Amino acid sequence: MKKTDLSCPVCGKPVQWSERYPHRPFCCERCKLIDLGAWAGESYRIPAQPPEKQPDEEE
What we know:
Structural class: alpha+beta
CATH superfamily of one domain: Erythroid Transcription Factor GATA-1, subunit A
Shape: elongated
Strand content: 5-15%
Number of helices: 1
Radius of gyration: 19 Å
CATH class of one domain: Alpha Beta
Helix content: 10-25%
CATH topology of one domain: Erythroid Transcription Factor GATA-1, Chain A
CATH architecture of one domain: 2-Layer Sandwich
Strand order of the largest sheet: 1-2
């Protein structure tokens, strides 16, 4: 795989980082929309710890 070659994050199909693939890093519009839907549906999340209470906060 060349440095400019990558895999579609949705289906794994090879994609070149070029004008030939206008939806890069996705292979096609379909995979791009699947990924957008996953973000909109909150399937992707960043793990986080709940904030610690500050000493001056009341419960």
